[in-house]
């Protein structure tokens, strides 16, 4: 990690501690300790297992793509990718650092930049598509509840959906309409002429053209394997489902075993959509506030509500950062290229 990333991690931890401390301001320590001591460990382990399965399934998606396109990719290296993504998503605004970090991690495994970028692009497209699909279902089921509890938050939900949908459209343009994408890049880059030299702008646009062409060629190759794409979509859908179920199992651990699993899951989907548009890393502040307000009707005890929020953030946010730090220390295995690809190289 660079010095800047270490500073960002330190700030994120301090911010998290500050938010937790503020949330606990009206909770008596003795009551909190009592509630924590009486947690149902079995349900809490299920919630932890959901997060581990979430990371494992994303690692499986990476392995599926690399094995099919490149050669044998060890589970150790494949699982390292989503954990590093979690770390850098967690310490950068709007999770902007996750994609570059994954690319670097794949390069360390001996995967060339073009194919690594294409694989990450396809993984991201499928992931975004499944997020939008889950969101549409959650919107039909839980949006009225959110409007009733926090009408202003519904605007953020809609805005988050528009952003995610726009991202998918932009990626699909890169994948299937490269000529239009190149023209769009030139139009968008026009104002830059007033701030940078023409030579620098021309050189970088040409580099982008090469990358767009490479993305297009690789994407056409992968998308043509429709069975592969359906399999990846199914794995990704399952990955998101186990993640969205985490609050439900946390509530069970705190004794709220008769909650509506469908409504709880849908509300979590909507919260995640809101978090994604906050510029602060991890949506800190907004995530905690949204959770406590939306789940206050399910968890009526204030101490348990705050404890549920803390456990939720520890599992869905800080747990991934911790595992990502561990993944950075692991040396990846090199991908074992197919003989055919080696001859082509």
Layout of helices and strands:
Layout: H1 3-23, H2 29-37, H3 41-69, E1 71-72, H4 75-91, H5 98-108, H6 113-149, H7 151-176, H8 178-189, H9 198-223, H10 226-244, H11 246-253, H12 261-275, H13 286-294, H14 302-328, E2 336-337, H15 339-344
Antiparallel strand pairs: 1-2
Helix pairs in contact: 3-4, 3-6, 3-10, 3-11, 3-14, 4-5, 4-14, 5-6, 6-7, 6-9, 6-10, 6-12, 7-12, 8-9, 11-14, 12-13, 13-14
Based on Cα principal axes, name the global outline: globular
Total DSSP helices: 15
Class of secondary structure makeup: mainly alpha
Tell me the major beta sheet: 2 strands, antiparallel
Radius of gyration: 22 Å
Strands ordered across the widest β-sheet: 1-2
- How many strands in all? 2
Helix content: over 70%
Q: What pattern of helices and strands is seen along the backbone?
A: HHHEHHHHHHHHHHHEH
Low-confidence stretches: 340-345
Overall tally of structural domains: 1
Mean pLDDT: 85
- Between the first and last Cα atoms, what is the distance in angstroms? 32 Å
Brief overview:
By secondary structure, this protein is an all-alpha fold. It has 15 helices and 2 strands.
